Amino acid sequence: MSTMEAPEQYPFDVAALRADFPVLERSVGGDPTTPGEGPDDDVDLVYLDNAATSHTPDPVVETIADYYRTYNSNVHRGIHQLSQEASVAYEEAHDTVADFIGAAGREEVIFTKNTTEAMNLVAYAWGLETLGPEDNVVLTEMEHHASLVTWQQIGARTGADVRYIEVESDGTLDMDDAAAKIDDDTAMVSVVHISNTLGTVNPISELASMTHEHDGLIFADGAQSVPNRPVDVADLDVDFFAFSGHKMCGPTGIGVLYGRQALLESMQPYLYGGEMIRKVTFEESTWEDLPWKFEAGTPSIAQGIGLAAAIEYIESIGLERIEAHEELLAEYAHEQLSDLDGVEIYGPAGDERGGLVAFNVDGVHAHDLSSILNDYGVAVRAGDHCTQPLHDKLGVAASVRASFYVYNTVEEVDVLVEAVTAARDLFA
Amino acid sequence: MYRQQILDHYKNPRNYGELEDPDFTHVGENPSCGDTIQMEVDLADDGETIAAARFTGDGCAISMAAASMLSEELHGMTTDELDALDTDDVTDLLGVDVSPMRIKCAVLGRQVAQDGAKIHAGELDPDAERSITEE
Questions:
Q1: Size of interface A-B (CB pairs under 8 A)
Q2: pLDDT below 70 — which residues of chain A?
């Protein structure tokens, strides 16, 4: 039985906040080929797939709808009023992001499609141009494929050695191995801030000082950290940082690359086209100032404005409070699942992790487990979570991951545990 | 989806193992799930009737139960009849509605058997990549 009492006090009013997310009221269980709630949907949704994508609160949906309804227009070049309104909102969204993550200003904030594109931007615009066979790029064994595959390919093209800091059996990074792998030939250290599989919170500023001692650059993947805890790129002392809007109450199609201004100034564009040029002749072109130099073509305007609204939304809750809420749920889930026979949980102990728990049930394939959880209305992710090499190291093909966000409750964790127990007993 | 019959075939797979001298052997996988299945088939003297089928594999209950049920069904079937099996035939064998995301698990065994027979008949390049089922 559980040794931990269900916490009665959340850091904020979760019940009131849930009213901003109408999707949480829907049922599931019916026909999954037709979008939206149908007549056969008969079980309450318990949405625990937030590390994949979070839901979008009404104020953010309204901000996006308001853009389309009242001032939809292309940005930057228009003289007419709608274009100016759209431009101001879109450009100011960069300022909102800069304030949010502690960047010096909008020059250091490039809007991308997502974290993956931000990673690729640096890999192409900096990596392909800079790296050679004498260099090495240091990753970790817990990197998301967004980082791992990207640098692997850049390594293959440039001859740079790609090496991986080992993960210890408790799910933390082997910092002795980090000290050994990061050396004078290290040009880039690309490391995930919070592992999307293990939940490990990596010591970014420590890795940053190790990297900088060797005159290397460090890129932190903040996809799983920015949504749920205060992040300050200056405190972390990173050179590049990236995250996605759709995991933090924002829309899909918008992500952020932070880069130190001097570095971004020194880099050539990654995509060419409209919106990113200053002067074009038949012979040559010059580039716009930062950040527009890296935002070629019509950008995701509504999504950029939506991201700023999402930031305002989560800031109104308070990032410290969100972090406390995530810890509370992750610790409770870790504790409850640990009490079940036959459940193996990956990553560090409950009080030292981000708001997610990946696990397996002995004798039940992750996809079967996920199917059965779905019968209980519980939405989780099953698979390799874009960390195949890490799963190889763990010795499993797949795992099931429950991940939490601002609207999740202890009662929802209880439904998860009930469904996991039922699945285990069904296959016993 | 997890009726007793499926769980029974998953826990006690029929025709699980290998044949001594099969007429053809083929392996396939479902990369997004990590399911892997090997099918081995003995043909009768007429060269087209399946005399015995065995499978081995590793994967979810749906993929393993479907392969187990198929292995029973294959006995006495001709290779033409095997080739004619479609997705509905597999879900009929399972006796449940398989959700769209899981269909690729259910049809893996069938795909491996069909591709193996085609390679044996010279209709498919044996050096072709392993059979793969995806959405």
A1: 41
A2: 1-8, 350
Q: Do B33 and A397 make contact, defined as CB atoms within 8 angstroms?
A: yes
Angle between helices A410-427 and B4-11 (to 10 degrees): 60
Kindly report the number of other CB atoms within 10 A of residue A270's CB atom: 21
Q: Phi and psi (nearest 5°) for A171? A: 90, 0
Residue A262 CB coordination number (10 Å): 9
For residue A365, list chain B residues with Cβ-Cβ distance below 8 A. 33, 59-61
The tokens describing B30, both together, are 């479902």
Q: What is the ipTM of this complex?
A: 0.85
- pLDDT per residue as tens digits for the range B36-81: 999 999 999 999 999 999 999 999 999 999 999 999 999 999 999 9
For residue B7, give the H/E element and its range.
Answer: helix B4-11
The question of whether A249 is a catalytic residue gets the answer: no
Contact of A90 with A305, CB cutoff 8 Å = yes
pLDDT digits (tens, 9 = 90+) for A206-241: 999 999 999 999 999 999 999 999 999 999 999 999
Task: Return the C-alpha torsion angle A128, A133, A135, A136, nearest 10.
Answer: 90
Residues 59-118 of B with CB under 8 A from A: 59-62, 99-102, 105
Pick the catalytic residue: A386, A394, A419, A420? A386
Quote the tokens at residue A87: 């431009």
Concatenated DSSP letters for A353-395? Answer: B-SEEEEEETTB-HHHHHHHHHHTTEE-EEE-TT-HHHHHHHT
d(CA B8, CA A407): 39
Contact A42, A27 (CB under 8 A): yes
B33·A368 Cβ contact <8 A: no
Cα dist from A61 to A67, A357, A358, whole Å: 10, 29, 30
Report the Cα A136 to chain-centroid distance in Å.
Answer: 25
**Kind and range of the H or E element at A91?**
helix A81-101
Mutate to test the interface with B, among A34, A40, A362, A368 (most CBs of B within 10 A): A368
Strand stretches in A48-142, DSSP E: 109-112, 136-140
**Distance of residue B66 Cα from the nearest chain A Cα, in angstroms:** 14
Cis ω for the linkage preceding A291 (within 30 of 0)? yes
Probe site for chain B from A33, A365, A374 (most B CB atoms < 10 A): A365
> Among A421, A368, A355, A427, which Cα is nearest to A399's?
A368
Task: Dig out the tokens for A358 from the structure.
Answer: 């990946």
Q: Please give the full DSSP string across A299-359, using - where no structure is assigned.
A: --HHHHHHHHHHHHHHHHH-HHHHHHHHHHHHHHHHHHHHTSTTEEEESS-GGGB-SEEEE
Structure tokens at B23: 């007429």
pTM over 0.90: yes
- CB-CB neighbors (< 8 A) of A371 in chain B: 1-2, 62, 99, 102
Query: Both tokens of residue B33?
Result: 């799930």
Strand A285-287 vs strand A277-280: parallel, antiparallel, or unpaired? antiparallel
Q: Which two tokens stand for residue A105?
A: 């200003």
Q: What is the pLDDT of residues B86-118, one digit of tens each?
A: 999 999 999 988 888 889 999 999 999 999 999
